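Weekly puzzle thread! Below is a chain. First person to post its structure in token form gets bragging rights.
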Amino acid sequence: MKTENRRHKQIFLVLVPHKDVRGELRKYGDLMIKAGLTDVYYFPHITPLASLSRALNTEELKQIAHSLRKNIGSDKILAEGDAVTAFPCGEKELSLNGPRLSIAIPQNVFESGIKKITDIFSPLIIGCFLTKDNKKLSLEIPREKIAFRAVAIANMYWRPIRLDGEICYKWKIGKLRWLPRP
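Winning reply:
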């Protein structure tokens, strides 16, 4: 097996739901793939918030976590339905697929790291997988709403690698900064 590492690394600010939610997200992804999806890449069960030019430091993450909690309040975050958004991956554009989050994040939440933010994702989706085309999936699969309060933010390091001529993706999620209790 020949692996060629690529130096093109991207950094994202991501929202990481508590591990209790990941079981439901796994079921969601499994249902979609069993329904006939092909040409998909696995994606960690996180929500990309923004592309970054450099990783945010601990203090910037802490400030953003406090701003997010203030914006979200004590309400539960709901994830429901199917949504898709463009996910920039260097060589080609892929689409991130998963349930849409019920929150909207105003621009001022990112004030502390604004110089490092190059792009903000919209809509907010808990990623379950990537597809090669930008069309919205039209699979009618009934699902329950996923609700949670415990969530963290972190830097995610993303890098494409070539493995036997195929492009694969490698990622690492940095230290989690949990949002304070409401």
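Puzzle host: Confirmed. Bonus trivia for everyone else. The chain has one domain: 3-178.
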